[in-house]
Design brief:
The chain is α/β, with parallel strands linked by helices. Helices cover about 35% and strands about 15% of the residues. It has 15 helices and 16 strands. Helix 3 packs across helix 9. The chain is globular and about 60 Å long.
Length: about 425
Amino acid sequence: MSRTDAILARLSRLHPKLIDLSLDRMLPLLEKFGNPQDHLPPVIHVAGTNAKGSTIAYLRAFLEAAGKTVHVYNSPHLVRFNERIRLAGTLVDTKRLDAALEETEAMNAGAGITFFEVTTVTAFKLFAETPADFLLLETGMGGTYDTTNVVKHPLGTIITPIDYDHQGFLGNTLGEIASNKAGILKRGARAVMGLQQDEARKVLARQAHRLGITPLWQGEDFHGGEQDGRLVYQDETGLLDLPPPALAGPHQFDNAALAIAAARHFELPVNEPALAEGLRRVSWPARMQPLRTGRLRDVLPPGHELWLDGGHNAHGAAALARTIAAMPHKPLVMIMGMMKTRQPEDFLAPFRDLHPALVYPVTIPGEANAHDGEYIAAHARAMGFSAHARRDVTEALTDAAALADARVLICGSLYLAGDVLAKNGTLPD
């Protein structure tokens, strides 16, 4: 076990629950550090169900193309915890991360606090002591009581599309979930809203009105989409004809448009050439990521495609299915693993019309809360899929190699995606 893993293991034992939404435990700890959350570069705070990471990836790409330095806070990580904390453009160095985690551990002095709370305090400390032009801050879950929601005066807030997810913590209706996400809105901070269903939109609009905020709404105040292979964006200030986003999938045109709207509405120092360059260079691991080299890719013969996507809820599955449907036809093999917090039917439903050649479910390695591959296979067969559980991803890839020119999609969980990246030798940077 590495020093980082040992520290994180100790921190994970400080509270009996992995998730216990509250700010009461971390505020005293932040105060011991001099409230670093009050000494950050301008913050753009992002909440929502899906597309948070992609939206942040675009904003980072735009700002860096404009020559700005950017902190980023994302979760969860895929392979290494370092991925959660990007300092002025670079993932935090392991030695510095370990020292900061141990300092936070010592300052906490054994008090009850959740893993995400204590690591977020560490991130704020690192962000405050490292110069940068901007901080892109992603919520972990929800908004109102999310550990990131201690920043009192963000430059701007973004709420990406809201759908059903984490109902046990955020509420059982879209309205309840939206009310929680709306907790990041702050009086005096501009806001941009992604495409929303009516129930969620009403809640977001009501909360914005209470705070005196007039948000920009995607699909109403700004529009962006694919035209002749280009991204055409339009708002009240005019039209932009831009290159397509480097991230694959029709939904990425929506995500890119949302980030462009935020850049313009928040008056970020980003011009049209920086937007164009950012769209060309943007990257976001395990989001319809092609794996063209690596140990796992080598299992497949030339002519096969290998794609990796960490989408894990119904909304993400629908976007993924649309992406596959827009590609030239090839036999589709789905290698999928899922956590028990999701059900296979919800994820597989959008793929019914794509007629996958095969579904190979696997049990996610090292995850006690993962569905057994046989469980996923049984549910897939009940839906009409040809499904056969496999011992691991390598065995599934070996079987997929027997097909001619197949498109292989590994999907269903960020935990599975992280395991695949590690085994393939493709570490996010």
